[in-house]
Design brief:
This protein is 32% helix and 20% strand. It is an alpha/beta fold. The protein has 3 domains: 101 residues, OB fold (Dihydrolipoamide Acetyltransferase, E2P); 151 residues, Rossmann fold; 54 residues, Ribonucleotide Reductase Protein R1, domain 1, CATH 1.10.40.50. Strands 10-9-8-11-13-12 form a 6-stranded mixed sheet, sandwiched between helices. Strands 1-2-3-5-4 form a 5-stranded mixed β-barrel. Strands 6-7 form a two-stranded antiparallel sheet. The longest helix is centred in the C-terminal third of the chain and has 16 residues. The relative contact order is 0.10.
Length: 372
């Protein structure tokens, strides 16, 4: 029988990394309930909690398990765990599985957790495709889309822009062209709730084992899209009015496997996600290229001679709104005044504690693989 973990996105790399640790079972986090998690393993579904040793050794919230993570756990004896609060199983606290290790992540969406001194917290992990949903009514905002793209590229996933409620747009071709102009490297798809076939344009991206996430403002139609792709009402849906006040219908992150084999993680509104580690070199590649053409390396793009950015503004090659969006994101991400290389160094430092630590971790895994 096919290991159901493959159905939930486990790759050969996950099985090989899990084999480095003996005695624990590989699983994937599919949902979270405060301090409890639901994990799927080859043996079935279990409620799980982190071990005391794991809790003691972690240094920040970003190291805790998140929906989409692959983990190693001790399973309870006597069967699967039950629902939150019912005890379930026969091992751990209340018969739960015990998570001992979080495996390497290939992508992660993060936010700054409130009341934690600016600590990073992972919202969802190991996502291949991120569908950035934006409705073509009052939700339509190019600066907001640029923000979504910067966060998406930084996560390690591949963004796809989904323009929903296309039936409300009077100039669809013009808007699509405008969006394509700022979403370089990302596909742009238009959908309408009144055209079921348009929603199916997302299916080619959702191949078996591929994990996707839907992000965007509340009420733009994320849950409606997922229900349409699943062929059944898996998630509650709200709506967004002309005043752009959508009802936030998703209350927790949850991983779902679609009938076609694709995997989706439904996440709460994009307002949860911060821009502490945005990828400006991809989402603003045009401006990044102009900055590299400025006469001075530390050009502030105000009065300096030989400024390629100001020249592009004057000729109309660069839109002032886009430059303002770029500068705002740099400030929010604490990258203001840094070059592309310095920004990359900052990101490495945030992820690994510095270049030396990243090399140490890389060498550690190389040595392990040689010894196998």
């Amino acid at each position: 029988m096919l290991n159901q973990l493959i159905r939930y996105g486990a790759s050969q790399q996950h099985f090989e990394e899990a084999a480095l640790y003996s005695g624990w079972c590989l699983g994937r986090v599919v949902s979270q309930y405060k301090d409890l998690y639901k994990i799927v393993t080859k043996e079935g579904e279990y409620l799980a909690e982190i071990s005391g040793k794991f809790r003691y050794k972690v240094k920040e919230l970003a190291e805790y398990p998140a929906v989409g993570d692959f983990v190693l756990a001790d399973l309870p004896k006597g069967g699967s765990g039950g629902s939150p609060g019912d005890g379930g199983g026969n091992g751990g606290s209340g018969g739960n599985a015990i998570i001992q290790q979080v495996l390497s992540r290939k992508s992660a969406f993060e936010r700054t957790a409130a009341g934690t001194g600016q600590q990073r917290q992972v919202v969802a992990a190991n996502i291949d495709i991120v569908f950035i949903c934006m409705a073509l009514n009052n939700d339509y905002n190019l600066s907001r889309l640029e923000r979504y793209l910067a966060v998406a590229w930084s996560s390690g996933a591949t963004p796809v822009v989904v323009l929903t409620k296309a039936d409300l747009c009077e100039n669809l071709s013009g808007v699509t062209l405008e969006v394509s102009g700022i979403a370089a490297g990302a596909d742009v798809i238009t959908t309408s709730g009144y055209d079921r076939a348009s929603c199916h344009r997302l299916l080619p991206y959702l191949q078996p084992g591929i994990t996707a996430s839907f992000i965007g403002s509340s009420g733009v139609g994320k849950s409606t899209l997922i229900n349409e792709l699943a062929g059944e009402k898996l998630l509650a849906t709200g709506d967004i009015g002309w005043e752009d006040k959508g009802r936030h219908t998703t209350t927790r992150r949850e991983l779902l496997v679609l009938p076609q084999g694709g995997i989706v993680i439904d996440t709460p509104g994009m307002r949860e996600l911060g821009v502490e580690a945005v990828n400006l070199s991809k989402s603003f590649a045009d401006i990044d290229e102009l900055v590299g053409q400025c006469r001075f390396r530390d050009c502030g793009h105000t009065t300096e001679p030989g400024c390629a950015v100001r020249r592009a503004l004057e000729t109309g090659e660069l839109d002032s709104r886009r430059l303002e969006s770029y500068q705002k994101l740099k400030k929010e991400a604490r990258y203001d005044g840094l070059s592309s290389k310095e920004i990359e160094a900052e990101k490495i430092n945030a992820m690994f504690g510095g270049m030396a630590e990243m090399k140490r971790m890389r060498d550690h895994f190389r040595q392990k693989n040689k010894g196998r």
